[in-house]
Specification:
Length: 192
Amino acid sequence: AVKPAKQTWKAREVIRNGGFEYGTAAWAMKGGLQAVAAESGRAGDDKDLGAGVEVTSVFSTSGFLSQMLHLPDKLTGGTLKLDWRLASKGQNPTLQQLTFAIGSFNQQAQFEPAAAIESVNANNFPGWEWQKIEHKLSAEELKSVNTMLGDKRQLVLIASISGDALRLDADNVSLKVDGEFTPPATPSFVAY
């Protein structure tokens, strides 16, 4: 077999459709109600929200927005950027927990974080305005991600919310990574 050359990734974007210009393509969403902006770029108009996951006691008090990550074999750096906000969708909005993380689901379908990026609850709620996350993965987080990659686990970026009468909006999601990637070996014969 022909051994392909190792590739070095530098600030390679691994999030697809991070501005939700193509609706929810490449994203998995769960929630009572889901919304996608008619257009992205947030011209200040309320319809322009990226994508939203609404939690409500009527449908479901938990929801998430996630994307499977195609990462290099060995991650040496990464920066996650995203915009988010919470929107009140009822008389009595209640936030139990909002978490942004990179990690993997185990066999029991429990999420195990490799990088817990941000955690928001009623005590540290920042208000209703758009918030910006810009998180550079720490050495410890890179090590956890690489351990999961070494164990051949599928990693995801996930924003999960639990509460009532709230919608989580997210937009402009980006994860730029550095790392080393070796493509799979190809057979050395040519088929005619």
